Amino acid sequence: MGLAASAMAQPAAPPGPGLQWQKLNTVAYPGKQDDIFFIDSRQGWYVNGGGHIYKTSDGGQHWELAFQQPGTFFRCIAFIDSLTGFVGNVGTDYFPNVKDTIPLYKTTDGGRSWQPVVYKGPYVKGLCAIDIVKEQYINHGQLDYKYHIYAVGRVGSPANMMVSHDGGNSFQSWSLQADCKMLFDIKMFNTREGVVCAASSENVAESNALILYTADGGNTWQKRYQSSRPFETTWKASFPSRQVGYVTIQSYNPDPQVKQQRVAKTTDGGRTWTEINLVEDAAARQFGIGFINEQHGFVGTMNSGYETRDGGRTWQRINLGRACNKIRIQTDANGQLYGYAIGVDVFKLQ
């Protein structure tokens, strides 16, 4: 958990040969938008706190409003295939004008209509992240797949988890309040092992950034990283490989002299973490993070984006818009790379 060698911010530079973040033409939104998800390089959805779900079928060239529900703060979204998907609501008593108390919805028609998910267990106030594990199995002599859905939340507390092991037909919920007080992101490597991005207190002035690890599918969690500074939370995670992963650390310290922004990094699959420096800028509060491989990745902050090509040792400032909250970088069936990012605006890596 000690500090690694300091990283220095460098002048702006493009992501690399053949790779450029391009701003897409989307409906203007007054603040940070939260999540974007693609099932392939062309078909995807994004959501925001205005209760909007937008859909594209041509790689983001055109977007249509697929669904709208005023009073709902859509925070996270994920799909199994072109028809079946899930969207999480942050819930009431945190953001203004949010009246919806249902944490999770499901669609079976590609996002045209959404139905509340029924679950067993304690009430879930709201959600901030969804992850899906695709598991191979033998079904009557044929190779088939099972889908496991994991959802966690929320910002502002309380900390809860929802899990389905039957493709979203049924869900179980449970509390993580004994382990943390806020949950922001989840990455499951398989049905047993995974990590969550968390915070140690619901009072941000007393909070440390916190990363928890599970080896039993989320039934129990062990603390693997905790920052030593107040006013900190984690936010989002990116694992370009099973062993190497990165988590953004947010600082809300009101002291303008507290300038150093840090990222947590693991090289052993989430069991231990070190801190690496991003940039010395009090205004550069971090949000989304996404890596192409173990060395090459991107971080979104309140006022810009940053890129590293050396595993976080050095960073260059790039244009990812303001408050880039989620960065998803994937490869298609032919091994071709594609990526999308969302904040105040939506960007495409191409």
What does this protein structure show overall?
This protein has 350 residues and is mainly β. The chain has a single domain (8-349), classed as YVTN repeat-like/Quinoprotein amine dehydrogenase (Methylamine Dehydrogenase, Chain H, 7 Propeller), CATH 2.130.10. The chain contains no helices and 30 strands. The chain has strands at 8-10, 21-23, 35-38, 44-47, 52-56, 64-68, 74-79, 85-89, 104-107, 115-116, 119-120, 129-139, 142-153, 160-164, 171-175, 182-188, 194-199, 209-214, 222-226, 232-238, 245-251, 260-266, 274-280, 286-291, 297-301, 305-308, 314-318, 326-331, 337-342, 346-349. A five-stranded mixed beta sheet has the order 1-27-26-25-24, with no helix packed on it. The chain has a five-stranded mixed beta sheet with strand order 11-15-14-13-12, with no helix packed on it. The protein is globular and about 55 Å long. Mean pLDDT is 94; it is low at 1-14.
